[in-house]
Amino acid sequence: MTDYAQYPSLTGRVALIIGGATGIGAALVEAFVGQGACVAFLDVDTTAGEALAAKLKDGDAAPVFVPCDIRDVDALQTAIAQVSDELGPIRVLLNNAARDDRHKLEDVTPESWDEGQSVNLRPHFFSTQAVRDAMREAGGGSIINMSSNSYLLGLEGYPGYVTAKAGIIGLTKSLARELGPERIRVNAVLPGWVMTDRQIKLWLTDEGERELMQQQALKQKIDPADVARLALFLAADDSALITGQSHVIDGGRV
C-alpha cells in the first residue's frame, strides 16, 4: 500500500470544487476532505451530490454540497457566496466541471456551441471573478483549472470541447498574471484519459484501451485519484511559487 503526502497547509482551509459530484470531481472532494480541508462542492446532479456528501459525512471534515446549474452565472455566483457565508473565505478553487460530449463538425449549431462553452469554459472565469475579493483579503489562494491533453493531441470528434480546453490555458495564463500581485496563484491541470465511470461506460473499448497503452509511456490506466493528488500539491503552500503553468498528467502520452 502506498502512503501519499499530507499537506498541513490545507488543514482547515476552505476549498470549493465546481463540478464535484462524480468522476474526477468526486475524487477531488474525497482528497481534500482527507486533508482536513473545509470542503464544499457544486453540481447539477443532486442525487450523486447528496450521495457523496452522505458517504463522506463521517469523515474528518464533512463536505457541504450545494446543488447548482453552473450554466446560470447568477446561480453560480450566488452558490459561491453561500459557501463563503457558511464556511468562510474560499482559499482554494477547483474549476473541474466539464462535459466531453461527442459531436460532429457538421452538426454543431450556434446554440449547441454556446451550450458547450457554458459548461466547459465560461464557469472557470465567473467563479474566479466571484472568489477573487475574499481570496485576496484572506491573504491569497490557489485556483486550479481543469483543462485536458485533448487539445495538445488535437483529438477529433468533439471540436467544441477541445476548443474550450485550449481556452482554459489562455485564461489560466492571463489570470495568473493579473492576480499574482494579490498572492492568488492560477494553474491548469491537463489530465489524459482518466478512467471515470462515465468514460468506462460510454467510450472505453478493448481496442481503445490497447491503443491508449501503446501511446502512453507508463502502461497504466489513470485513476481520478491520481489527478486529485496533483491538485492537492497545487493547492497547498508546498507549490507557493508555481503559477500560470500547465501540468499534464497523462502517463506520458503527449
Task: Explain the layout of strands and helices.
Blueprint: E1 14-18, H1 23-34, E2 38-43, H2 46-55, E3 64-67, H3 73-87, E4 92-95, H4 110-120, H5 122-137, E5 141-146, H6 150-153, H7 159-179, E6 184-191, H8 197-202, H9 206-215, H10 224-235, E7 246-249
Parallel strand pairs: 1-2, 1-4, 2-3, 4-5, 5-6, 6-7
Helix pairs in contact: 1-10, 3-5, 4-7
**Sheet with most strands:** 7 strands, parallel
User: Can you write the helix and strand succession as a string?
Assistant: EHEHEHEHHEHHEHHHE
Globally, the shape reads: globular
User: Could you name the ranges where pLDDT drops below 50 across 5 or more consecutive residues?
Assistant: none
Helical stretch tally:
10
CATH uppermost class? Alpha Beta
Number of domains: 1
Calculate Rg over CA atoms: 17 Å
CATH architecture: 3-Layer(aba) Sandwich
Q: Give me the secondary-structure category.
A: alpha/beta
CATH superfamily: NAD(P)-binding Rossmann-like Domain
Count the strands? Answer: 7
Summed over residues and divided by their number, the pLDDT gives a mean of 95
Distance between the termini: 29 Å
Helix content: 40-55%
Strand arrangement, largest sheet?
Answer: 3-2-1-4-5-6-7
Portion in beta strands:
5-15%
